[in-house]
Amino acid sequence: MLDGERETVRALVGDQAGVWDRAGLLPLELLRKLGGLGLLSAQIPAAHGGRGADSRTNGEFTAYVGSLCSSLRSVMTSQGMAAWTIERLGTREQHRAFLPGLSSGQLAAVGFSETDAGSDLSAIGTRIRRDGDSVVVDGAKRWITASHYADLLVIVGQYDDGAAAVVIPADTPGVHVERVAEPMGCRAAGHADLRFDSVRVPAENVLGGTGLPLPLVVTAALGYGRMSVAWGCVGILRACLDAAATHAKGRQQFGKPIAEHQLVARHIAELYVSEQIASRACEHASGRWDAKSPDMVVAAVTAKHIGAGHAARGAAAAVQVLASAGAQDGHVVARAYRDAKLMEIIEGSNEICQLILSQHALSHAE
Ligand code: FAD
Predict the structure, then answer these.
(1) What phi-psi label fits residue 347: left (phi over 0), alpha (psi between -120 and 50 degrees) or beta?
(2) Confidence category of residue 366, pLDDT binned at 50, 70, 90
(3) Is 112 in the pocket of ligand 1 (CB under 6 A)?
(4) Residue 6 burial by Cβ neighbours in a 10 Å radius (0-12, 13-18, 19+)
């Protein structure tokens, strides 16, 4: 499943990823086309017009897209995270109202982070308050991937005594979207800062209808996001391994291919090992997801943490192997180097992942 769709994506992306990266924009028609084919969020169930892919199949597809263009993969992550949040927290009516659009070309983004609430989401200051048949949203979000392109914004805020996620059409009066200037990586992923000034939407747009504990809201969305980023890191590693191995075989120095110099061969071996470790961690986590196992949450954090670290180190090694041949803006390994570093920050930074994993390990100790 989705094997034929790789050719579709390959043909649509062509050799444009570097051009889009430098321009800081993906073509909107590309996103509409892939969204319309249900490929930006292939796990949406068939009952809601989606592809109904399992986590493993969607993950391999995500890795493939990530090997071509991390900006496009980032937009996929946001779209899938929005769809999963709606699926996980929403009612049947909300599934029917929002999910078919996300499989047929509508684009979505998810906003948690704020200026004073990055790693510590308990500090979220955005307020969602009930007013008759509506809710009114006031607050601001930072660095929201894909929100420059999005038709729908899934926004997390404080609600009553708990928290809620609310679906806000991006063209609602009071929504302000301002692009993040010159991001270091994933430059075409449409990151933007958002402001909500007394934004009024129907109360039916609050997912689940009532306030929920903040950790439940956050874990629901981030679970998908972490899986998707982890598979995206596998894609980065595969692109880097391919570029480094091809270059090392062809480039001659000191009378032989640089692949035959053992210090270069070691970079290739380490890249291969990184790709294998990250792939196995993702396969395991997707297996737990598809089995609906309670340990899928910790398996996703583990896969994301492994993937991000290996992708950041692997991309640096690939730049080292290509040296001047890869040191130009827009080159696949130069992009990977910048993109991979950001993977160590998003969906739980390295340190936050380590805290989660240590708490998990400690809770199992005698
Ligand atoms: P801070 O929280 O200020 O952390 C700074 C440093 O301190 C980090 O190294 C962190 O790990 C460390 N640190 C913080 N607390 C602890 C602790 N208790 N123990 C140990 N170390 C700690 N947000 C969204 O809501 N939606 C998006 O789509 C989205 N996309 C993004 C895309 C990109 C490319 C980037 C860069 C960010 C995106 N974000 C998004 C925001 C992202 O989630 C936050 O950047 C991230 O949570 C870290 O928050 P912060 O940047 O405020 O860092």
Answers:
(1) left
(2) confident
(3) yes
(4) middle
pLDDT tens string 182-223: 999 999 999 999 999 999 999 999 999 988 999 999 998 899
Q: Binning pLDDT at 50, 70 and 90, where does residue 295 land? A: very high
Local confidence band at 154 (pLDDT 50, 70, 90 cut-offs): very high
- Mean pLDDT value of segment 238-256: 98
Instruction: Specify the amino acid at residue 296.
Output: M
Which CATH class name applies to 3-102? mainly alpha
Rounded to a whole number, what is the distance in angstroms from the first to the last CA of the chain?
A: 44
Q: Is 265 in the pocket of ligand 1 (CB under 6 A)?
A: no
Domain edges within the chain = 3-102, 108-212, 215-363
The answer to which of 174-188, 209-223, 255-269, 305-319 has the lowest mean pLDDT is: 209-223
Distance 51 CA to ligand 1 centre (A): 32
Whole-number Å distance, alpha carbon 120 to ligand 1 midpoint, is 8
Q: How far is the CA of 114 from the centre of ligand 1 (A)?
A: 10
Q: How far apart are CA 247 and CA 145, in angstroms?
A: 33
Instruction: Give the largest Cα separation in the chain, rounded.
Output: 79
| 108-212: CATH, from 2.40.110.10, 3.30.379.10, 3.40.50.2300, 3.40.50.970 | 2.40.110.10
